[in-house]
Amino acid sequence: MKLTSLFLCLVPAFAHDLYLMPAQFVTKSGTKLQVVFQNGDEFPEGVSATKPERLRNTQLLSRGGQALFEAITAEAKRTTAEVKVPAAGLAILTAQTLPNFIELDAKKFRSYLEHENLTNAIQWRDQHQETAKPGRERYSKFVKSLIQAGNSDDYYQHRTGLTIEIIPEADPYSLKPGAILPVQVLFRGAPAVDVAVESAWLENGKAKMEVLGRTDAQGRILIPVKASGPHRLHAIVIERCADPKAADWESFWASLTFAISQ
């Protein structure tokens, strides 16, 4: 077993990224597109299904209008849906989950925080003598995928209004390997500062993952484009829960998928 795989086995099972993988990132208007909800740290396939009843805001947004996901179905290791692409141009697929709760013992919670680079929570627990306490966390996930139908446009920078979202500041479908993709992470509509951003991509058919750094004072970070094909960006904001009876911490997970041409 590789060291990376061994480490992932030690991370709490709930600490999975949720992301969207359309059957085709480049398609045509009028197409009925299959969308797969992938749930897991692996890329480009997850390890478990997401319950359809936990999903909200399952839709396609574009200048040509909105289309809702249809036939959302949970399978053995994934959840699938269909959506009609209404018009030419760039479009954004979105979804989010209802909040869920989990409690982990102190050691496992620390391992999860370290794995996800949630340094603010680690420091808070250290400063408030809570390192030996279990972690009570409420979490929600907010996912986007950028697809292209025919001609491109500037819809890549559209704000969907999700609680947390990663917004490209250049059109990924105009980029080639070796380019730089600037992105901004927003949390409740404002720049998400000092948030770790991870990139996943395929290199010679094998998944590569790298934490690229942390967002600046404007919530921005530069993403090196290292290969063609599908890519996933991932970020988490965690804060003290506003309702201490519900949880001690609340986290908000964001992902963005897109594809880079040859």
Sequence of secondary-structure elements: HEEEEEEEEEHHEEEEEEEEE
**Poorly predicted segments:** 1-13
Distance between the termini: 32 Å
Structural class: mainly beta
Instruction: Report the biggest beta sheet as strand number plus sense, adding barrel if it closes.
Output: 10 strands, mixed
Q: Based on CA inertia axes, which overall geometry fits?
A: globular
β-sheet strand percentage:
over 45%
pLDDT average, as an integer? Answer: 94
Rg is: 18 Å
What helical percentage do the residues reach?
A: 10-25%
Number of strands: 18
Number of helices: 3
What is this structure, in a nutshell?
This protein is mainly beta. It is 10% helix and 49% strand. The chain has helices spanning 3-10, 106-115, 119-127, and strands spanning 18-22, 26-27, 32-39, 55-62, 65-68, 70-74, 79-84, 89-97, 100-104, 135-149, 164-168, 180-187, 190-191, 196-203, 206-214, 220-224, 229-240, 249-260.
Can you tell me about this structure?
- The chain has 262 residues and is mainly beta.
- It has three helices and 18 strands.
- It has helices spanning 3-10, 106-115, 119-127, and strands at 18-22, 26-27, 32-39, 55-62, 65-68, 70-74, 79-84, 89-97, 100-104, 135-149, 164-168, 180-187, 190-191, 196-203, 206-214, 220-224, 229-240, 249-260.
- The strands form three sheets. Strands 2, 4, 5, 8, 9, 10, 14, 15, 17 and 18 form a ten-stranded mixed β-sheet that branches.
- The longest helix is centred in the middle third of the chain and has 10 residues, at 106-115.
- It starts with a helix and ends with a strand.
- The model is unreliable at 1-13 (pLDDT under 50).
